[in-house]
Amino acid sequence: MARTKSIEPDAAASDKTEQILQGAMQEFLTHGYAGTSMDKVAKTGGVSKATVYSYFADKEGLFVALVQRLAQKKVHFTVLDEEPAVALRFVATTLLEQVTQEPEFLNFVRLVIAESGRFPQLAQTFVKNLAKPGIERLTQYLASHPELKLPDPEATARIFIGSLVYFQLTQHMMHGKDMCDSLKRESR
User: CB neighbours (10 Å) of residue 136?
Assistant: First the structure.
């Protein structure tokens, strides 16, 4: 697996890392994984190529860092201390709002899907850092609530999250929102 440099706590290092990651996100979204080079990332991030390499060993390490940064922002179900109705509503609302309120995240998921055939390790990194921890966290929560009487909390977590992901895929990623909305109007 690609390595990344440990990020020092000082502000200058943090600012440089952020510049690099922003430049990388812009380049990956514009040119795809294969079409992005460390030169382009450096230029877009406003840093030298040497600076990029001082923080990230290679393009894969840079991509992994982007996924990990997204995971830190996305996989934090702090409300899972609440009762199931509140917690599950929060999880569902949060997952659905990520697409509509954060188009960069939607485009990043599109990129991972599009590039997964040629670069399966990118998709595996995405699953390992985003999908798997989310399912694990929800499974733990469901298992900790015996009043739900779930015979398989993990299967329930996968079905719950899978339904939300499917909705996002058809509505937003495949631009089916207008078509699905017209089906609702036709059935009335």
Answer: 13
